[in-house]
Amino acid sequence: MSEDASLDRFLDEDDAEADESDSAAAESDARDDPVAVGAESASVDGTESSDGEPGDEEPTDDGGVTPATTTYAWSGEGAACGACGGTVERRWQQDGSLVCADCKEWDRS
């Protein structure tokens, strides 16, 4: 088995130095400007977006963010398509069931 490598080994010397100076400057700015730190924390919790408007997330009953829903499923052994019944490894959500790529109605907007 091969040895794991750090991503830093793949950077050029100039790239590594530039990244270090950018992160140091950002940390310095955050310490110097307490208002900006407070504004960032307000947008992180999902209560306000960066422009002061309420976020797009719909709150749940407990006041949190609505959990993400899956749109795709993979089965290494294969599973039946909800529309045609064929056995496939990859299926997508459509009208409450999982269907194969051939049966999926793709939005071509």
From TrEMBL:
Pfam families assigned to the protein according to its UniProt record, in alphabetical order? DUF7573
Q: Where is the DUF7573 domain?
A: 68-106
Q: Where is the composition biased (Acidic residues)?
A: 11-22, 48-61
Membrane-traversing stretches: none
Which superkingdom, per the lineage? Archaea
Q: Where is this region: Disordered?
A: 1-78
* Biased composition annotated in UniProt, kind: Basic and acidic residues: 1-10
- InterPro entries to which the protein is assigned, alphabetical: DUF7573 (IPR055995)
Output this protein's name: DUF7573 domain-containing protein
| Biological source species | Haloarcula nitratireducens
